């Protein structure tokens, strides 16, 4: 802002100089402009440098083969993308990410909703249950992952008890290509259902009590009161929680690393753990950026369509 | 009446089963640190027959755990502080200064909220490296603050705009400058939203794994999330040691949660819903 003022000042004649100073005086009451010049740039700079620019750079770098040192010079057009889409492990990662979304929508959110409906009223026991169910959400993913790595260990934990009971060989589920990702899905539900439950509880507590009373007086059954009164009234909470669960699913990473690290034979990668393994650890800046661009496009397309269609109706 | 009672029994059985699903792995973790490997193998979930204290003792005696916690705390503290200072300043320009074209800049920040942090992680890494921030705590703090801005500006602006407009008019008539108004009126009135955003940033920073993993190379700089993975790497399948270590490292978060439950739930879900 101050820059504008000086450049305009230099170029113009004395009369417009006066105009500028008049404009400045008029707008700077209570140091309004000064405050602006002081308050806005820090966020603008930080945000542009660390959030916006890297996205553009990812698009640019994805067209090169580059190890991150010197200037990117080996222009390879779209071959990073071609390699990506031909890579079987990437297919698996996309498919796994899709499975997370599916499980969230089909198991996690309904579970959260059922629990929220049964404990949203204020009571001592309900508060205790809420506390318990929310607990996994505040744990760091790496810690939660290690805890479950123990639980799933074939020699210890629940899997050992399981195979012992069936009298079969020890089963290392996290090393089993066909089942490892199922185990990860269990941990995901365990970790995040409490978060969605809390969103629903907050929404349910906002439902006016007289509406539910009225529906009871009209002879609605418990189920009808839930289906026709409570759920429609908390729809905005449900829309938000779907939004978060899908955006979260697209970015799952921290839990994968302690549980399987993407193995066995790349069968449990998600988009981000794939990016980490094939882009970052090998410093394939071009290839990794291409994965990032795909991830970015998925998130943005989803976010924009969801917000402009479903969330718009609800607000 | 009988049907009602049956439903409510069914409900409690269901809730207790889910609570078991949530809690059993956690109790097994805490208790596992007290068991010998042999006992852990035969009795992974129950109370230990013989309480062994050496594994926990070793975790504390190691000393590195305090350094890890300290690093995590420093990173979290500065992330919260900077997000709150910069976020409120920016939101204030949108809510009270309302300069020409502010809506475009506001939307610019909001759009960034949808950007997945991981998508541009490689260019971000190169940027941190080129700015000479690699292997320093500020290399973790600054990007974390940048990524928290969109969300916090949204919450702050909404809150500031809901403060009574009369306050601002009266202050301006009395000749109070914008900066003084921000400092003496807006900030003191905004403690609830400061707590919400603060808790959100605190928990996200405390639990962050990917960014420190990229930025930090020397162990002296590691936060606890990197330390725990390294410990696991060192001790492989000595699960009793690892479980003791996990218990010790997650307990600050759990204790904090039990004491500040209300703020945390509000910060993590309320913030999300308002956003």
SSE blueprint:
The complex is a heterodimer of chains A (about 325) and B (about 280).
Chain A: H1 2-11, H2 14-27, H3 32-61, E1 64-65, E2 74-75, H4 79-86, H5 88-119, H6 124-138, H7 141-151, H8 157-166, H9 180-205, H10 209-217, H11 222-233, H12 235-250, H13 256-259, H14 271-280, H15 285-314
Antiparallel strand pairs in A: 1-2
Chain B: H1 2-32, H2 37-42, H3 54-62, H4 64-97, H5 102-113, H6 121-130, H7 137-162, H8 165-173, H9 178-189, H10 191-207, H11 210-215, H12 224-235, H13 239-259, H14 261-274
Keywords (chain A): Cell membrane, Membrane, Transmembrane, Transmembrane helix, Transport
Pfam families (chain A): BPD_transp_1 (PF00528)
Organism (chain A): Marinomonas sp. (strain MWYL1)
Descriptive report:
- The complex is a heterodimer of chains A (315) and B (275).
- The longest helix of chain A is centred in the N-terminal third of the chain and has 32 residues.
- In chain A, strand 1 and strand 2 form a beta hairpin.
- Chain A has 15 helices and two strands.
- In chain A, helix 5 packs parallel to helix 9 and helix 12 packs antiparallel against helix 15.
- Chain A is an all-alpha fold.
- The two termini of chain A are 36 Å apart.
- Chain B has 275 residues and is mainly alpha-helical.
- Chain B folds into two domains: 89 residues, no CATH class; 169 residues, MetI-like fold (Orthogonal Bundle), CATH 1.10.3720.10.
- Chain B is 80% helix and 0% strand.
- The longest helix of chain B is centred in the N-terminal third of the chain and has 34 residues.
- The model of chain B has no long low-confidence stretch (mean pLDDT 88).
- Chains A and B meet through helix 3, helix 5, helix 6, helix 7 and helix 8 of A and helix 1, helix 4, helix 5, helix 6 and helix 7 of B.
